[in-house]
Design a protein that fits this description.
alpha/beta; Aspartate Aminotransferase, domain 1; Aspartate Aminotransferase, domain 2; 2 domains; 3-stranded antiparallel sheet; 13 helices; globular; binds pyridoxal-5'-phosphate
Length: 358
């Protein structure tokens, strides 16, 4: 039969494989596969979602005005510089659609977050890998890949699954040298977890450089991955094309109201980030004791090396512990383990002790 065909570039996309994949024989008891906040959202968010029954028949605010104002107030920025999306990945796709097309190049860090490549190929642009050395990105390696045809550079900041990030001074250097025709997208989905002084999320770079934008997520520290909410911070001239192509109601009233409630409870974020960072340190030490090498870490997951990663993945999954295999990122010998509750991580360590494949 003759079916209508999509563009060739669409067929070159490998569909995103998420943490919901559960092979036969696996039990989804402890899920450490999607870098979620195991403590969930603020109780205020849960109350808002439970109570949201009156306005289900009406369209949400397409411009998400109240949420944008709340974000603006929280971060001391201008609401006119903010756009809201169905998760921050929505913003990554919208940026690619608005700013790149056939014949253009989009720079992506090697082993970068999978959506960057999907967004690039969906608009017919060419993904250009920026190589890492020892899993680290460098300003020089990025600039070497820039051409006249480069339209976007997706900077994972910090990265997932490779947690490395460019330090403040390195980004300063990068932005001072990056040609102004390249839009630098600072993907700061994990920013709330970053307590290190060398990390800077990029708010003032957006103010200083018209070709710099930042994306943020409510899916990680805010514990709202299921509500699909993210935002983009950019100068109004950069937001203009986004406003023209954005699906008019790309977020629901429930998630907008939940976002406002979440921003009103910063104590909850501090609490969750504190627990995460404590659990991360304890877990990393336990993994060290088991002689399991880890890549440098820092947000809410670790990358653990195993000679027989696939067997370890199955051994854990069959015992109710779901982690994330990294074949899709050409890192077949690694498993990504999200920082769950301490008791979950301790159970994982106990099971690893009995695993014949590590
Ligand atoms: C680096 C990075 N950016 C963006 C996202 C997208 O998050 P969301 O669309 O849930 O906001 C993720 C999700 O895992 C991520 O790891």
């Amino acid at each position: 039969m003759n079916f209508p065909k999509a563009a060739d570039s669409i067929y070159s996309i490998s569909p995103y494989v998420g943490g919901d994949v559960t092979p036969a024989g696996f039990v989804r008891r402890v899920v450490l596969a999607s870098n979620e906040n195991p403590y969930g959202p603020s109780p205020l968010v849960k109350d808002v979602v439970k109570g949201y029954t009156e306005r289900l028949h009406s369209y949400p605010s397409g411009a998400a005005t109240a949420l944008r104002e709340k974000i603006a107030q929280t971060y001391g920025i201008d609401a006119a510089w903010i756009a809201i999306g169905n998760g921050s990945e929505d913003m990554l796709h919208l940026l690619a659609r608005a700013y790149a097309g056939r014949g253009d190049e989009i720079l992506i860090p090697q082993h970068g977050f999978g959506v960057y490549k999907i967004a690039t190929l969906s608009v017919g642009a060419t993904p250009v890998d920026v190589p890492r050395v020892d899993f680290k990105l460098s300003v020089q390696a990025i600039l070497e890949k820039v051409t006249e045809r480069s339209k976007i550079f997706f900077l994972d900041h910090p990265g997932n699954p490779v947690a490395h990030y460019l330090m403040r001074a390195e980004i300063e250097e990068l932005l001072s040298k990056m040609p102004s025709h390249v839009l630098v997208v600072i993907d700061a989905a994990y920013a709330e977890y970053m307590e290190n002084e060398t990390y800077h999320c990029g708010l003032d770079w957006v103010r200083r450089y018209p070709n710099v934008v930042m994306t943020r997520s409510f899916s990680k520290a805010y514990g709202m991955a299921n509500l699909r909410l993210g935002w983009l911070y950019a100068q109004p001239e950069i937001l203009d094309p986004i406003a023209r192509i954005r699906p008019p109601f790309n977020t629901t009233g429930i998630s907008q109201a939940a976002g406002i409630a979440a921003l009103g409870d910063q104590a909850w974020i501090d609490h969750c980030v504190g627990l995460n960072n404590k659990n991360l340190k304890i877990f990393a030490k336990q993994m060290q004791t088991l002689n399991i090498p880890l890549l440098p870490f820092g947000s809410n997951f670790v990358m653990a090396y195993f000679d027989e990663a696939q067997q370890v993945y199955h051994y854990l999954g069959e015992r109710g512990l779901l982690v994330r295999p990294m074949g899709a990122y050409n890192l077949e010998k690694y498993l990504r383990i999200s920082i769950g509750k301490l008791e979950e991580l301790e159970e994982l360590v106990e099971v690893l002790k009995t695993c014949p494949h590590r």
